[in-house]
Design the sequence.
């Protein structure tokens, strides 16, 4: 079956530090991969996605590359801001339009 | 675009009472999902609909939970009777059915059962 594993948090960084949140997946076929972000008190929002191998999704300075050979979709940002503090979810989408989510990683950015 | 609309945003009720959560998906979307989020269990898919028809309800915890989608623009999730362990944030999401299509989430309903 499908599964997503992401690094446990919380991840605590200083402002302007480099961010990496690891995500690996197990799936049959060729899933699409997503990163969602959840700010306090809000629902999940799509941050970026990639639909095929070697695609790079990017948005708001965040990037992730779909690596089929390592079954990974790690999230990166070169310089985080306090406003990036949130919970980040990696997810995969496969046949049937359902998403399989990872457990979420809380990011805390300190000024 | 109004996005996914959920009501109420907050609900406090006593154990044993009936609770009804409501969702209006994005116009034109034909898939709708109900999720529950807790600290202990994370994000769980409860049920999803395609074209108003329930496709997978394997995540519904027990018979106390039921969901309906009478038309393309409205869905309800009902808990009867409610229990304290049902306390959670309940999210509705919608999408246009396709392989790997993005789901758009509502703001959630925060439920507290006393």
Sequence:
């Amino acid at each position: 079956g499908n599964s997503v594993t992401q690094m446990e948090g919380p991840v605590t960084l200083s402002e302007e530090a480099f961010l990496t949140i690891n995500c690996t997946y197990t799936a049959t076929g060729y899933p699409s991969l997503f990163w969602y972000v959840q700010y306090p008190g809000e629902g999940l929002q799509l941050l970026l996605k990639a639909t095929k191998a070697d695609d790079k999704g990017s948005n708001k300075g965040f990037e992730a590359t779909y690596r089929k050979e390592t079954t990974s979709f790690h999230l990166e940002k070169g310089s985080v801001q306090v406003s990036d503090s949130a919970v980040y979810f990696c997810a995969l989408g496969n046949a049937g339009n359902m998403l399989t989510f990872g457990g979420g990683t809380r990011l805390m950015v300190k000024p | 675009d109004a996005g996914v609309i959920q009501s109420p945003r907050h609900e406090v009720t006593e154990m044993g009472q009936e609770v009804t959560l409501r969702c209006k998906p994005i116009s034109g979307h034909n898939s709708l999902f109900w999720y529950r989020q807790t600290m202990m269990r994370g994000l769980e898919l409860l049920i999803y609909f395609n074209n108003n028809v329930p496709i997978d309800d394997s995540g519904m915890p027990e018979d106390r939970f039921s969901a309906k989608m009478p038309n393309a623009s409205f869905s309800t999730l009902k808990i009867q009777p409610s229990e304290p362990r049902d306390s959670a944030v309940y999210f509705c999401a919608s999408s246009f059915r396709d392989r790997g299509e993005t789901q758009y989430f509502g703001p959630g309903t925060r439920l507290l059962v006393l």
